[in-house]
Amino acid sequence: MERLFLECTLRAALLVGGAAIVLYVMRVKPAAARYRVWRGAMALMLILPIWTLWGPKVPLRILPALPQITANDTTVPSGIMPTSLTASPAISTREAVLLGIYLLGLCVFLIRLTIGTLRAGKLAREAVVHDRVRTSPFCVAPVTVGFFHPVVILPEQWRQWPQAQVDAILTHEGEHARRRDPLVQWFALLNRAIFWFHPAAWWLERTLSALAEQACDDAVLEHGHNPRDYAQYLIDIARSMARSGARVNLAGMTMPGTFLARRIRKILEADRTFRISRARMACAFVVCWIACTACAAGRIDHSPQNSSSQQPTTPSLPQPSTKFVLGDLKIEGDVQDRDAARDRVLNHFNGHEYRDARQLADVVMEVGVRADFQNRGYFKVIADVVGTQPLGIADGKQRTLLIVSVNEGAQYRFERLVVKAADASTSIIPPPEVVQGLVHLRRGDLFDAGELRDAFGRLEQWYAAHGYGTPEIRPEFTFDDTHHLIDVTLDVK
């Protein structure tokens, strides 16, 4: 879950950043053109979580080729350790907290979006139609509402406006209706609700709203309306809103608050507006689409191997008789003593040889990485192999970099050890003083899975010394997640 959040966050940032760079480099200035590009970027960002989970991925082969060894060859499941001491939950406490915070924010923004949608629908239903013009006493400024069949609603005092102002306002709102801007704005708000934690979603929603207004203003001026007169109309409407002290905050409104000053400046500078040819616009749109799609679906991959590099005579490739050794270890994730853990594992496996990368990854993961964290109290550690990379051949051995992902979780302490018989009538258990000496841990010490394994051996030695043979020992664990304590019960049969 945490990896999904991180990947969606990075991909969304790259998507928005890539589109912005293309627009800047291609010098796309018209508001309508930029509005279309950002509308497409918003649509891609909206489907980004689904695409990240289940969508097709496009490999971007920009990394050097890996001979023989790839991440897919060495990925192993996070199963139990041979000693049956791993108890990895489906979701960690940290992930549960993060998920709870995200769902809380999502619900808040979805509730706000639902209320706004219901208000827009009610406003459209209760509007009064007279001479084919819809009016509402709740509107201080003109507004366009509706998803698939948008309607324009004017304030009741619209008859007091000059005819030129009415024509300009209807042209502006008609452009909102023609492009279905209320629907686009609704999806932008939905995208902001899903990515409420991402600054790009907030910026994208405001940018789409501002560009929609600027594009409609450009359409009004293209119809021949005087820029200064039209700017004055907008100022008059703003003054009416200020006197009333209220406004209907819906997508498609002519006067979206803080955008007024910018809009008036753009209107008065209309004669210096940069024009873009259709060919450049088409080129910019295609480049933006490719860049955004690459950011959304691209996956950095290694280049394919050349046929010549697969010849057995190539000295840089490991031969079938080559042994694999652990050359380096990279630990990813939120780990406190990352370097110390890495050094311990490397020292433990110094000189150990394996027949292939898979065996090396399996052994180092189970006996090295997981054991190291469980020996330091992180009993519920979640660890998986991410991949391997060759580091070259030295002394006839293939040195390998092992990349692992670790979520260490909470650090537990030892509470007590109890030995009980599976069958009280036939099984014998050691005396209490022997049980106390089985594990060299005292109450409150960090839980050490390695020490517990040693306790198994001591218990087997006691039974062998007293002529009972080798018992079957099954450990059971009781967790106190509030105080991070572990009780151990050894069930002897």
Please describe the structure with a list of short key phrases separated by commas or semicolons.
493 residues, 15 helices, alpha/beta, Ubiquitin-like (UB roll)
Task: Describe the overall structure.
By secondary structure, this protein is α/β, with parallel strands linked by helices. The protein has three domains: 2-295, no CATH class; 320-407, Ubiquitin-like (UB roll) (Roll), CATH 3.10.20; 413-492, Ubiquitin-like (UB roll) (Roll), CATH 3.10.20.310. The chain has 15 helices and twelve strands. It has helices at residues 2-25, 31-46, 48-54, 71-74, 93-126, 163-179, 181-194, 199-222, 227-244, 260-268, 278-297, 338-348, 357-374, 432-438, 449-465, and strands spanning 58-63, 128-130, 133-135, 143-145, 151-154, 298-302, 323-332, 382-394, 397-407, 413-421, 473-480, 485-492. Strands 2-3-5-4 form a four-stranded mixed beta sheet, with helices on both faces. A three-stranded mixed beta sheet has the order 7-9-8. Helix 1 (2-25) packs across helix 3, helix 1 (2-25) packs antiparallel against helix 11 (278-297) and helix 7 runs antiparallel to helix 8. The radius of gyration is 34 Å and the shape is elongated. Residues 65-90, 251-257 and 307-317 have low confidence and may be disordered.
